[in-house]
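HUMAN: Now follow C-alpha cell order:
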Amino acid sequence: MKAAIIHAAKDLRIEDIEAETAGPGQLEIRIRAGGICGSDLHYYNHGGFGDVRIREPMILGHEVAGTIAALGSGVSNFAVGDRVAISPSRPCNTCEYCLKGLQNHCLNMRFYGSAMPMPHIQGAFRETLVAEAWQCHKVADNVSFGEAAMAEPLAVTLHAVSRAGSLLGKRVLVSGCGPIGALCIVAARAHGAREIVVTDVMDDVLPYAEAVGANRVINVAQKPEDLAAYADGKGKFDVMFEASGNARALATGLQTLAPRGILVQLGLGGEVGLPQNMVVSKEIDIRGSFRFHREYGLAVDLLNQGRIDVKPLISGTYPLADAVAAFDAASDRSKSMKVQLAFG
C-alpha cells in the first residue's frame, strides 16, 4: 500500500510500504479521508517543532476516517463495511495519569504521526490502517468521510470547552482563526455561548468564522481599537480561547476578560510574559488545554446527530498522489482552512 512519508523538511514522499493484518481485538480500515494538522505542517515545513525533530522516515497524519475491511478475532461490535472515525490517541491505560482518568497526559502515549519518541510513532496517512477496535467510532451514513475526519480537531476544542467550564450564556472571545480557533467557535456555540467574538490578523480566514457561528469578527492588525473597546469597565468577556500562540494576542485578550474571567490556552508558542498585575487584580484563571480523550466519541456523536456543521471549514481535498500540493496549500493561510487528503 502507499503512504505519505516525511523524510526531512520539504521532503514528503508517497511510498510503498507493507500492509498489516488485523490481530485480536483490531480492525483493518481502508482510509478514505485524512486532514492535515498543524503538527503535520511543522514536520513538513520545518522538520519538526521545538526540540522535536524528524530523525527517521515517518508516516504523517492523525485525523482520519475510513471503512472497515477486515475484523481481527474477538471483535463483535463492528462489521466489515462499517464507516468509522479513528481516534489517534492510544494511551497505555496503566500509568499513574491514565489510572486517574487523565489519559491525555499518558506517560506512554502512542499518538499517530509523532516524532517525540524514538523510534517515531508512525502516522495514519496510509491506504490501510490497523487500529484497535476501541479507537474506532461508527460514523452515520449522512456524514461524509471528510466531516468524520474532522472529529479529531473538534475533540481538541471540546476538551478546551470542558476546561473552561459552563459556557451557557457566556460571552466568549476566540483569538486566532485557524482550524482550531474556528472549531472553538463550533464547540462554544454547541455548549450555549451567548456571544462569540473572533479575532485574527488576516481578513481571509474571518469569513470561515462567520460561517460557523461567530457573532462578530475583528481583524486586529487593521482595527485593534475594535477589540480594545471590549476592555472598558474592566473587560466584557467571560471566557477567552487563545488559539494563536501569539504573545500579543494573549496580552490584549487578557485586557478584555472580565473579573474572574477564564483564559484557556490552546495555541502553542514560545516563552511569553504575563501582565501579572492584571491577572491578580482581575482574579483571572489561566488554564491550559492539551489534546483530548473521552471527547473524541462526543465529537463523532455530535457529527452523527447533525448538531454541528464542520463542512464550511473544509477548504480543499487532494488525492494522496498530490500530497505535496495539499501540504503547500495547507501552509498558505490566505487560501486554506482545513485541507484534506482523499484515499482510494
User: Anything to note?
Assistant: The chain has a mean pLDDT of 96. The radius of gyration is 20 Å. Residues 204 and 334 are 5 Å apart (CA to CA).
